[in-house]
Amino acid sequence: MRYSYIIFLICLTSSLCRSQDRLKDSIAGKSLFDSAAKAASSKQDTVKLAPKAGKINIIKQISVDSGKASAAVKDTLVLKKKHDPHKATIRSAIIPGWGQAYNREYWKIPLVWAAVGIPIGTYIYNNTWYARTRDAYNIVINGQTQNYGLINSKLIDNTTGLPYSANTLQFYRNNFRKDRDYSILVILFAWGLNVVDATVFGHLKDFDVSSDLSMHVQPNYDPTFKTTSLAFAFSFKTKQRKEVMMP
Description:
Among the domains are: 48-81, no CATH class; 85-207. By secondary structure, it is an alpha+beta fold. The protein has helices at 2-41, 85-94, 98-102, 109-141, 166-203; strands spanning 44-49, 55-63, 70-78, 214-222, 227-235. The strands form two sheets. Strands 1-2-3 form a three-stranded antiparallel beta sheet, covered by helices on one side.
């Protein structure tokens, strides 16, 4: 009977030890899992912003205390650069069409070049013939027959082989000079219109010109003069810029 009681105590003690060891192992495994989960949930974000660049590089690092698992994720957030109408104005004043290119309205560049290039070509043509008729007129009016060979062949009468009369050459000279001066005015006008177009549409870049625009039509009646009128009200709204909030 004594031996049976001793064996029973030994078995009970060993079973208690085993259950205590299992409980410690489970508690240790749970704490290890919690520490790994906390380490995985904690992220270190590093923001790098270049002084003039329009990108933000976000580097997310995930690490576990045991050192067995580590990861690094690099995200790039592209920020839209603010459009500056002043730059469009300056560029259009320097080179026609450069401001339209800055506004990303490339289809306008051929139109601008044509509007400025055609009067420039007209100016060159009129100035060239003004110089020719002026020289021919001076030769004829001064009676410099020895210099008739310097006169352009188109200013020579085919029937007589002599230059046109002084009155005819003077008429041509005055017309070419007048057309040349008009060409200069057209060039300045086209150049200025190019600058105005780039400036206006550069400012419109910051406005919402989508289908969200609203127009209200409001009829009105004036009892004093007994007249009716119709009023149109347009409402424009600027684009809302969203700020990027970093945790």
